[in-house]
């Protein structure tokens, strides 16, 4: 499948919102309260993502994976690390792949495109937080992330365990990715 990874545009807010609702309902079923997941609406999420996309700047980015026909298949966001006491400089805030397109390598390509963007912005390292009960945490381990910390946080009134995965040397990660994906059609913008 030909895909292109690019920076999100205002017109992407609607498709991102629909994917956000669908992925959350699947990924967090049995983890987050049902009323939270059922209360998600594409309209509310579209307003939220429109606001987020409007804040893209030289440090913060939202990337999307787009099929040749223009369909959005995945999205993610990254920027400066939020305060957490870890000696890391960049952070991946979100990464979601449409349920119909999981297991096709889109998550890997999107993750590494955000790493490349972080490195180009001068961030030497990166991390992300994932719910410990979310099976996606194994994906981050497979992508070379090392467990850097654990914490318990309240989300929607529920105390949940989280795990931080870290990539302390983005230059090394990006070199490995470039060697693995040299010549990939579509490129990154």
Number of helices: 6
Secondary-structure element order, N to C: EHHHEEEHEHEEH
Adjacency order of strands in the biggest sheet? 1-2-3-4-5-7-6
Mean pLDDT: 90
CATH architecture: 3-Layer(aba) Sandwich
Strand-pairing-aware structural class: alpha+beta
Count of folded domains = 1
SSE arrangement:
Layout: E1 3-7, H1 13-27, H2 34-39, H3 42-54, E2 61-67, E3 72-80, E4 90-97, H4 106-120, E5 126-131, H5 137-142, E6 146-155, E7 158-167, H6 170-180
Parallel strand pairs: 4-5
Antiparallel strand pairs: 1-2, 2-3, 3-4, 5-7, 6-7
Helix pairs in contact: 1-3, 4-6
Overview of this protein structure:
With 189 residues, the chain is of the alpha+beta class. Helices cover 35% and strands 29% of the residues. The chain is built from 6 helices and 7 strands. The chain has a 7-stranded mixed beta sheet, sandwiched between helices. The longest helix has 15 residues, at 13-27.
Write a brief caption for the model:
The protein is α+β, with helices and mostly antiparallel strands and 189 residues long.
Q: Which features would summarize this protein structure in a list?
A:
189 residues, seven-stranded mixed β-sheet, 6 helices, 7 strands, globular
């Amino acid at each position: 499948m030909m895909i292109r990874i690019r920076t999100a545009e205002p017109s992407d807010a609607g498709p991102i919102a629909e994917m956000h609702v669908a992925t959350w309902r699947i990924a967090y079923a049995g983890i987050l309260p049902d009323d939270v997941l059922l209360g998600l609406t594409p309209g509310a999420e579209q307003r939220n993502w429109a606001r987020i996309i409007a804040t893209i700047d030289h440090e913060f980015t939202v990337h999307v994976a787009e099929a040749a026909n223009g369909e959005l298949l995945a999205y993610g966001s990254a920027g400066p690390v939020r305060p957490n006491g870890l000696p890391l400089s960049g952070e991946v805030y979100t990464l979601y792949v449409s349920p119909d397109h999981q297991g096709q390598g889109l998550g890997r390509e999107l993750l590494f495109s955000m790493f490349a963007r972080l490195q180009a912005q001068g961030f030497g390292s990166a991390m992300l937080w994932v719910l410990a009960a979310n099976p996606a945490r194994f994906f981050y381990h497979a992508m070379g992330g090392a467990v850097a910390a654990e914490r318990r946080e309240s989300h929607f009134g529920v105390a949940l365990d989280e795990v931080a995965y870290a990539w302390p040397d983005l230059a090394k990660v990006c070199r490995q990715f470039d060697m693995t994906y040299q010549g990939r059609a579509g490129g990154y913008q």
